[in-house]
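F.,

This is the one I mentioned.
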């Protein structure tokens, strides 16, 4: 699944938290000392309101309440030193400070509650996706495989990027795709396609039949239906409503063990790239096909195309989150150009460099989830 960033209203480190907490206490101390020393007609007590207000922006309700209490105590000390504790002017300042501290504490509590709720929802989404998206094997016959999944920073919403691998009697089949949308709905669609692939990848002899099963899995609502195209009744009430919104771009590949080729069906997905002899070669298909789930609108035939894939070649599969990443100038990530510099790397090294470069290019914030799979053909074992 790959490591994930955990940046959502970031929890402060212990050191950073202590430094921030020093700000309101320093403000209280400074205002108190200056207020005692300035002439009687000058009143700096209202500035103490900033202490609990600032604390509420980064600390919890208890700490906000404590800072407010310290500020009230400091204002009381100023009142006792300069005039009397019951002086009307200072009394109003203390009352106002108490009210502001209570309000700041309430807002801090609400912020903590909302952050906790969002953290729980995100944890559920991460857990769901980690169950759906199983790690790929490092070796499959003569293939060496590596994969990386990068979660988007924007809103930290989990996307529907997916990948899977399955061994057959004659080779290895791979799937990479991207379900429409974000969150649990996208994960649900991804799980249906993955379920259909895992059920049928070893069973179907030809790629068109396998793609047909994947097509049937989109928007069906259950993995049992995804594994059986006959279980989908497009004429059932509400079926159109379920499928109209659901589609998945996908790339389905078959890599034979003993033939130096790769066969693929592309359903609206970015074309894979092959690194060969220092060059980056896109495997563009002759015909463009719509994504899975749009068969009711367009009825395409699954066209299988064959490309050379020999010993030493590295095949890179990716989702659009990679090529749609932008830098500060809003320019898209130049994937093919970057790959040329890393020709000759094995899959784990290639993905490690690509990941670091992609994150640096996007400033650490991807606009969409990104999945990467690198496959290298090794010499056949005797």
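My design for it:
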């Amino acid at each position: 699944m790959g490591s994930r960033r955990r940046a959502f209203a970031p929890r402060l480190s212990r050191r950073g938290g202590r430094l921030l907490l020093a700000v309101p206490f320093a403000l209280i101390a400074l205002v108190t000392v200056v207020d005692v020393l300035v002439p009687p007609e000058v009143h700096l007590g209202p500035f103490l309101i900033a202490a609990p207000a600032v604390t509420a922006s980064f600390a919890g309700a208890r700490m906000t309440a404590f800072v407010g209490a310290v500020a009230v105590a400091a204002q009381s000390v100023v009142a006792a030193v300069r005039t009397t504790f019951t002086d009307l002017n200072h009394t109003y300042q203390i009352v106002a400070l108490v009210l502001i501290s209570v309000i700041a504490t309430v807002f801090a509590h609400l912020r903590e509650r909302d952050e906790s709720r969002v953290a729980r929802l995100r944890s559920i989404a991460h857990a769901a996706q980690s169950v759906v998206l199983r790690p790929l094997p490092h070796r499959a016959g003569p293939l060496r495989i590596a994969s990386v999944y990068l979660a988007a920073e924007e809103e930290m919403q989990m996307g529907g990027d997916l990948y899977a691998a399955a061994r057959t009697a004659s080779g290895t089949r791979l799937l990479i795709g991207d379900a429409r949308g974000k969150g649990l709905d996208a994960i649900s669609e991804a799980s249906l396609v993955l379920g259909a692939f895992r059920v049928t990848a070893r069973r179907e002899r030809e790629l068109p039949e396998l793609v047909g099963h994947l097509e049937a899995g989109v928007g069906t609502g259950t993995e049992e239906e995804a594994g059986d195209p006959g279980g989908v009744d497009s004429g059932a009430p509400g079926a159109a409503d379920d499928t109209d919104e659901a589609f998945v771009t996908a790339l389905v590949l078959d890599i034979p063990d003993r033939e130096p080729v790769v066969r693929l069906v592309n359903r609206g997905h970015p074309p894979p790239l092959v690194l060969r002899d220092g060059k980056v070669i896109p495997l563009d298909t002759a015909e463009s096909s719509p994504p899975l789930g749009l068969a009711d609108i367009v009825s395409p035939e699954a066209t299988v195309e064959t490309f050379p894939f020999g010993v030493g070649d590295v095949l890179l599969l990716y989702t659009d989150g990679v090529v749609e990443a932008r830098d500060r100038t809003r320019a898209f990530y130049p994937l093919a150009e970057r790959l040329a510099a890393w020709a000759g790397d094995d899959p784990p090294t290639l993905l490690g460099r690509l990941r670091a470069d992609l994150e640096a290019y996007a400033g650490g914030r991807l606009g969409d989830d990104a999945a990467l799979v690198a496959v290298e053909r090794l010499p056949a074992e005797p």
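Residues 25 and 373 are 51 Å apart (CA to CA).

Talk soon.
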